[in-house]
């Protein structure tokens, strides 16, 4: 790089930082305005705890209605998928210590409840360091959290598999890793990250798939398959767990990872440049996915500029924030990201903010 090129790059970074500071300041001021206009927003701990209690109680009630036969399995799955999306947002806010910061007992109790409601994910305490690093180095090669959600991977069977079943994908990565030391290291990491709830969660899922695949193949082949009373009792528990907890979380996680991995840029992002880290994705046809990740594609970019606002406030600030972010150069609905494996660089950009 020549002296002139270095000077131009320095000027560009300075200009970008000025834009970032301006966007952060504007969104923060708008958030303060909303807090004054709606005094209830100042009771952040109560609001967070209320959403948490409502979501957990909703899952219990919906599960009970399904078990008693009042609602079908598909209704229970969809309702609980929606409720777990609320819990994910609460957990994300808790990772940033937005609720009960000075009351560790209440804070950690909420963290634990989030983990129980989403047992297929590593503990939120383990994820905290990864997430903080994600904010510092978003989109760079060291951003492990982005890689976990498939950001930067070319589209194909492997990426789809990872979106559907991260545990199986991680296991296959370990099996095909070069050298026994690397295999053992990766397998150990997978086990550690999924202990204890993740192992029960994924184990239950694979038992469910295996048993029903076995009985289906038997019926197709005309075999007379008779399960013991113990097996039937066990599968009754497994079936209920899948409908009430596992299938809802798999839907939620697929939708979240699909949206998150494509609205984050990865691989060629300028370090700590919030203008390049994310885009806003809010076309109408993404709503089936947005529904189960609480409109993540439309509002998560705001979080990269202003961390202190809880998830519900980001929804309220979105119309204003989108205008400010668009003026600063944040991209909107850059669908070329699917072809570019989420790289930021592109030859032509035709991205406009949508309402």
From TrEMBL:
Keyword Cell inner membrane: no
A Pfam family the protein falls into: FA_desaturase
Alphabetical list of InterPro entries matching this protein: FA_desaturase_dom
Keyword terms, alphabetized: Membrane, Transmembrane, Transmembrane helix
Biological processes per GO annotation: lipid metabolic process
All residue ranges annotated as the Fatty acid desaturase domain in the record: 71-334
Superkingdom of origin organism: Bacteria
Record-annotated membrane-spanning stretches: 45-65, 157-176, 197-217
Name of the featured protein: Fatty acid desaturase
Organism: Pseudomonas cremoris
Source species taxonomy: Bacteria, Pseudomonadati, Pseudomonadota, Gammaproteobacteria, Pseudomonadales
